[in-house]
Design a protein that fits this description.
Blueprint: H1 13-29, H2 49-72, H3 74-109, H4 113-117, H5 122-125, H6 127-135, H7 146-160, H8 167-184, H9 200-214, H10 225-228, H11 232-255, H12 265-272, H13 281-297, H14 311-318, H15 320-340, H16 344-376
Amino acid sequence: MTRLIRTSAQRDLRVDLARGVALLFIFIDHIPGNQLNEYTLRNLALCDATEAFVLLAGYAAGLSYGATADKHGWIFAAADVLRRTATLYVAHILVFVLVTAQVGYSAELLNPAYVEEMLLDPFVTEPYRALLEALLLRYQPNLLNILPLYVALLLMLAPALALRRHPLVLMALSIAGYVAVRITGLNLPNWIGGGWFLNPFAWQVLFFTGCVLGYAPPGGRPLAVPRIAPLQATITAGAMLVTLLGAAAMLAFWAVPDVAPGLPGRIARVLSSIDKTGLHPLRLLSILSLAWLVAWFVPFDAAWLRGRLVAPLILMGQQGLPVFCAGILLSFLGRVVLEQDDSALAQAATNLIGFAALAGVAMVNAWFGRAARSQRRPPAEAPADASPLLVPPPSPARESHS
């Protein structure tokens, strides 16, 4: 498995590992009744794996498309972003169809309530309208709202790439939009009522923060690094304080029910109002603090990042799209299994088999990708006795995480 991992002197495997962990947490959290989800990020911080996924997606986008824009120009990079957007859109529609079929069959065979719980009941009354609204991304059943958010964020990225070398301007516009959304509640419409569950006008601030952190001009360091270098110790102390207070609040408010009634009213109201739709400021501060601490305490060149123990998670992070799509389908299947048998053995088997399946999807996708790249390589670049499926020698160019 380690031979399928893409490595180079410039590639940050910490990002791949964090994304793999986020994808695994998303799979675990999407299974109701899964006892393992009591130990994922959402119960230990004021944020969850979705925030990590979006921040890392922004980092990868800034790294990849920023380099493309520097090499080929902004228009070419924007077109590449739109191409990727189309891929994500097609993936979302495919997963939508598969989940609808999966839930519909399970409802007919086991429990009719699945349809209503997954917000798929419009297909019973207005199937053609529901399909149209799904194609327009105005209809997003449960579990199917992350890829539409990613599509919307990439559409915003295409014009924003023109500001890649002006991070202060880009972040000023992004923060202004975020503040406006928090004040006005502006959101995209949702056919079944309200707005998008993950409001892209709010979540863009996290995505563009990742973009700014990931982008580095040719021959230079990320533009954000020199400005914050003198404050590293202060930022680290603040990040630790935010993380510890968040963990304490979550443990006190949710894990120990007897504590919540005794909290001061103002604190209880704040904790209960930390919404996910509009990316509450405390959620934003929490994920940024965690990201800073990981970057601070985990060395870029840590030897264990290239070990076998974390290889499955790193490979999952490098093959994010197919792993995410497979995780959505497997999570509902895991729910069905645990509703039939909630024993410790069933719990362990559901999580272990699910993890193995996600790692398997990542391996197969990486294997085919490596084979395709080796076939496109000119014969002069590879000796006749070279294996086309082994990791190629590191390239001097900075490698993309997308």
